[in-house]
Amino acid sequence: MAVQKLPLAKALNESLRKALETDPKVVIMGLDVGKLGGVFRITDGLQKDFGEDRVVDTPLAESGIVGTAIGLALRGYRPVVEIQFDGFVFPAYDQIVTQLAKMRARSLGTVKMPVVIRIPYGGGIGAVEHHSESPESLFAHVAGLKVVTPANSSDAYWMLQQAIQSDDPVIFFEPKRRYWDKGEVDTEAIPGELHKARVAREGTDLTLLAYGPMVKTCLEAAAAAAEEGKSVEVVDLRSISPLDFDTIQASVEKTRRLVVVHEAPVFFGSGAEIAARITERCFYHLEAPVLRVGGYHAPYPPARLEEEYLPGLDRVLDAVDRSLAY
Amino acid sequence: MTVESTAARKTTRRSSGTKRTASASTSTTKKATAATASEPELVQLLTPEGERVQHPDYDIDLSAEELRGLYRDMVLTRRFDAEATALQRQGELGLWASLLGQEAAQIGSGRALRDDDYVFPTYREHGVAWCRGVDPTNLLGMFRGVNNGGWDPNSNNFHLYTIVLGSQTLHATGYAMGIAKDGADSAVLAYFGDGASSQGDVNESFVFSAVYNAPVVFFCQNNQWAISEPIEKQTRVPLYQRAAGFGFPGVRVDGNDVLACLAVTRSALERARRGEGPTLIEAFTYRMAAHTTSDDPTRYRRDTEREAWEAKDPILRLKTYLENEGHADAAFFEELEAESEALGKHVREVVRAMPVPDHMAMFDHTYADGHALVDEERAQFAAYQESFEGGETE
């Protein structure tokens, strides 16, 4: 059955299964990825079918997980590492930034680092501290890393396939609050390019640019705006490093207005980079300054406050109105 | 009890190969000595006076040619190191991290390796690089500032120098896990120092290697100083004893005794090959020079300390032994002297001729599969350079 309707989490699981089947060098590593199948069950059933040698429960030490994954990659393996939650990646940040990202350049291109680091990220699930963060710009800032994030089941399946096939290290951010959203996955399709943005909804008056969990929010905002007679285009960025500025530029030259939406704090967030570059590229096309909607410059709040912290339908529509008012 | 006190020159030798399995674990149970004790308990086969002594757990039987080979390795490594220090003083290198005093630790351990073994060095393993057949001038690129590595790790199974302390011990462990997955019988030798022993990564590598029984040997050169911080700032127990807490053997070896370093490392590598897991070797040695050419040891340690260690010089003791045993004649030493000078000259010439890379090279190898931003910025940079009259800036 080539086309199936799968929750995003199951699409990731199927993608990992496919990778384990097709490439004997693929190794899954992380905490609780074996019998438990990961805390979000993304690796469910994989250790049972592929053995403890290929789906490896590791000691509880993130730097150790990534550091040994680097060593395995040097030996010719393709490790796919699971970090349990966004806020727990930081013990491994040193290995990712000083070692994983730079190894190829330091070797003058003689070694490759085909390591995927999967990180469930973002809020909206009522979790405790350190379980709801969006640290993507901290990785996008580092040369040598690629950073991607799917927003739907089809992209979850295919982008993970492509990330595993890449000879570069890929930080693969998974929108954890969308894990249970269902979507069609065609496992025999010819996938698009990993680092290309996608127009998720056509429009003419304004472009909403989002990725990961905020794509759904922006699609809902565009539908609401349409009821008020506003034609809003939604672009799903998919890849944060590299950024597909050609697709963004084409959309902005059409709509002349851009609002960037992400859960991560606005300050030094990916929206800042996009605003700067689109202002350079599209200065004479813009009818309004590029606006950003995102988290605040405060620690991620306790769960009872996260609905106010995270960009929701109303805050996105407020930004749409402010942009259109110029 | 020190080994010296019971040693007699050329006493009966235990046939090689016996007692190997029990060797390392025996050492962990010995009485603890303070990390800074003047005569630490350690495995020694050649005394500072050049006397061959026996150890109940380790033995080595080398031909005169092999002994001369170890001597040659140490002399040439020291000569290369001195040349690099001089080149830094002449402004040809930006920095140099000297291995002076650690030749025995590096040559002894390095010569214990098989070709299919893999080494993960710090940034001071010039002697190990020599043993692996890495062209010594390749080591100088990063210190001259023309690259950040510059050799293919897989051509000599010698990984790039790692400057962030301890990171490479995890890479070594992961590589060893890969060897085990492949069903190969190679082993990995991971270097680090007394300072890095405090790093989380080193301790995590102990955990991972123990849990997975990975074929890796951790070779800690305890050279007593982490820049200005003495070993007391890193540990309250002798470093080799830490291994016991992770569930694998640890052994302290005289790091200035090339024979002991070779015997102990060989034994640990064999143990790893047999699938018996990691070993921690603490090579007790001394950093005779500054941490790097940017360091000033007169601010934190006394000359008398260095003088005490000069009496334990790794090269001198082997020379004494070679001479006393009649294993090397005057012609050998003269030829080696000439070879040393030729090496120094070669290094000087290669370094001075080392080209500054093309400025476009800074973009190279950032990614294997390309990256739109790198392409864009490379093009912008090229256009900027070409905007100057005559194209290039210089």
Written account of the structure:
The complex is a heterodimer of chains A (326) and B (394). Chain A is of the alpha/beta class. Chain A folds into 2 domains: 3-186, Thiamin diphosphate (ThDP)-binding fold, Pyr/PP domains (Rossmann fold); 198-324, Rossmann fold (3-Layer(aba) Sandwich). Helix content of chain A is 36%, strand content 21%. Chain A has helices at 8-22, 46-50, 62-74, 93-100, 103-106, 136-140, 153-165, 214-227, 245-255, 270-281, 306-309, 313-324, and strands spanning 3-7, 26-30, 55-57, 78-82, 116-121, 146-148, 170-175, 182-186, 198-201, 206-210, 232-236, 239-241, 258-265, 291-295. A 7-stranded mixed β-sheet of chain A has the order 3-2-4-5-7-6-12, sandwiched between helices. Chain A is globular. Chain B has 2 domains: 3-353, Rossmann fold, CATH 3.40.50; 361-394. The longest helix of chain B is centred in the N-terminal third of the chain and has 26 residues, at 64-89. In chain B, the strands form 2 sheets. Chain B has a 5-stranded parallel β-sheet, with helices on both faces. A two-stranded antiparallel sheet of chain B has the order 4-5. With 394 residues, chain B is of the alpha/beta class. In chain B, strand 6 (250-254), helix 11 (258-273) and strand 7 (279-284) form a beta-alpha-beta unit. Chain B is globular and about 70 Å long. The model of chain B is unreliable at 1-39 (pLDDT under 50). Classes of the chains: A alpha/beta (326), B alpha/beta (394). The interface between A and B is large, with 48 and 43 residues.
